Amino acid sequence: MTFAHDLRYSYEDYLRALADSEIKLEYCAGVIYAMAGGTIAHAMIGATAVQLLKNALGGRCVVLTSDAKVRVETSDFAGFPDVSVVCGEILTSSIDEHAITNPTVLVEVTSRSTENYDRGEKLAHYQALSSLCAVLFVSHQERRVTVVERAAGKWTTREVREGERVRLAEPEVDFAVDELYAGIALEAR
């Protein structure tokens, strides 16, 4: 399925294309993007992130897989983060009942083809969500998690590496980077 990036599609066009698609599609202000399939390591990291977050949150929040679509109403964006966490009631978009609008934490496992997009344009959309407290970028090349966290209305970024722990203030989360990557062979640089 190919989409012309010089054409503008409505959100309804996007939903129809998504319903007919065998791959995930993301939407940004009239442009539809086909998302590349991930590697086995990517899938393993995503699954482990779900497990670690569920354990760390102890049922205080709902942890969702990459099948959960996130919609940012203010920038007309819809995408599929690798993991989404919602603390409190799950709210959905008024124009897309299958898209959550109030994630608390989002996780993106990077890949060669999407890392710049994830850390740039996609992050900017996510940061427009008033409910969002943190975005975790999990590296596909080294045992490293970039934590982008909102505190006192400002976004900060820090790197957490092998032998260290990922700690979030809101919601309270604590897990070891080594646990996230246990038994997973990473891509060669």
Describe the structure in brief.
This protein is of the alpha+beta class and 189 residues long. Helix content is 24%, strand content 31%.
Report how far apart the termini are.
Answer: 30 Å
Q: Order of helices and strands, N to C?
A: HEEHEEEEEEHEEEEEH
Q: Strand pairing plus helix content: what structural class? A: alpha+beta
Secondary structure tally: strands: 13
- Biggest sheet features: 6 strands, mixed
Number of DSSP helical runs: 4
Overall mean confidence score, pLDDT: 93
Widest sheet, order of strands: 3-6-8-9-10-11
What is the 3D form? globular
Gyration radius over CA = 16 Å
- Helix fraction? 10-25%
Uncertain spans, ≥5 residues at pLDDT below 50?
none
Instruction: Tell me the fraction of residues in β-strands, as a range.
Output: 25-35%
Layout of secondary structure:
Elements: H1 11-20, E1 25-28, E2 31-34, H2 40-57, E3 62-64, E4 69-72, E5 77-79, E6 83-86, E7 99-100, E8 105-109, H3 115-126, E9 134-138, E10 144-151, E11 154-161, E12 165-168, E13 173-176, H4 177-181
Parallel strand pairs: 4-7, 8-9
Antiparallel strand pairs: 1-2, 1-5, 3-6, 4-5, 6-8, 9-10, 10-11, 12-13
